[in-house]
């Protein structure tokens, strides 16, 4: 649920709305919860499952952060596409700056205060495991950098400086194969910890 306070003419007005994600609309139609949690992922009932819900259904909830970029309001989730909303909190749909397939992104973005470019990263269970994107102030994808890795780790946030994008590769590893074997999808692997520094399309890896 998103909350908004509007200030005008010495008065304050309040409004709240749910972001009408695909998962929420499906659960409304079913009249019940269909998804498990990150530590209790479950297969979706075949009656409600589609291609993106196999083998395990993961509900993307844009509850982490609300930003405005290129005159668009965006609700951010973790590892899924942002949802575009209006100033009146009406859901427009999945944010699609590439005009092809909506881009998944991590929970937080970084804005370049000089030129208005928006930077964000995405981590994935399949290669490429980590990608850095840049969207200009017109809402167009102008950079996409795939970072070479051999595993998927959770990257919730990163740092942007004048010359570098610094991505901390913390050792919280997501392993779908271990989940299928009856274990947890989240694993603590401290031997894999490190950080990436990106500059002029080149990057280096530094162990902690």
Question: How would you describe what is shown here?
Answer:
It is a single chain. The protein is mainly β and 208 residues long. The chain has one domain. The chain contains 2 helices and 19 strands. It has helices at residues 22-30, 176-180; strands at residues 2-8, 11-17, 65-69, 72-76, 80-81, 83-85, 91-94, 104-105, 110-111, 118-123, 130-135, 141-147, 152-153, 159-160, 165-169, 172-174, 186-188, 194-199, 202-207. The chain has a 4-stranded antiparallel sheet, with no helix packed on it. The radius of gyration is 19 Å and the shape is globular. The model has no long low-confidence stretch (mean pLDDT 87).
Provide key terms for this protein.
four-stranded antiparallel beta sheet; 2 helices; 19 strands; globular; 40% strand; 208 residues; mainly beta; single chain
Give the helices and strands, then pairings.
Layout: E1 2-8, E2 11-17, H1 22-30, E3 65-69, E4 72-76, E5 80-81, E6 83-85, E7 91-94, E8 104-105, E9 110-111, E10 118-123, E11 130-135, E12 141-147, E13 152-153, E14 159-160, E15 165-169, E16 172-174, H2 176-180, E17 186-188, E18 194-199, E19 202-207
Antiparallel strand pairs: 1-2, 3-4, 4-6, 5-8, 6-7, 9-10, 10-11, 11-12, 13-16, 14-15, 15-18, 16-17, 18-19
Unreliable spans are none
Rg over CA atoms: 19 Å
Order of helices and strands: EEHEEEEEEEEEEEEEEHEEE
Shape: globular
What percentage of the residues does DSSP assign to strands (E)? 35-45%
**Could you report the average pLDDT, rounded to the nearest whole number?**
87
């Amino acid at each position: 649920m998103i909350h908004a306070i509007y200030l005008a003419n010495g008065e304050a007005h309040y409004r709240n709305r749910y972001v009408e994600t695909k998962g929420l609309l499906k659960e409304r139609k079913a009249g019940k919860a269909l998804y498990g949690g990150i530590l209790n992922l479950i297969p979706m009932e075949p009656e409600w499952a589609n291609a993106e819900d196999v083998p395990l259904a993961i509900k993307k909830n844009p509850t982490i952060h609300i930003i405005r970029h290129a005159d668009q309001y965006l609700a951010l989730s973790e590892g899924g596409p942002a949802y575009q909303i209006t100033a009146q909190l009406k859901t427009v749909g999945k944010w699609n700056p590439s005009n092809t397939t909506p881009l998944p992104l991590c929970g937080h973005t970084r804005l370049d205060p000089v030129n208005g470019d928006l930077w964000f990263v995405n981590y994935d269970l399949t290669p490429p495991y980590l990608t850095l994107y840049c969207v200009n102030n017109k809402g167009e994808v102008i950079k996409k950098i795939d970072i070479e890795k051999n595993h998927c780790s959770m990257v919730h946030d990163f740092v942007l400086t004048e010359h570098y994008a610094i991505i901390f590769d913390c050792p919280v590893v997501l392993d779908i194969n271990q989940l299928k074997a009856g274990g947890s999808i989240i694993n603590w692997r401290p031997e894999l910890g490190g950080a990436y520094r990106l500059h002029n399309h080149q990057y280096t890896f530094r162990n902690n």
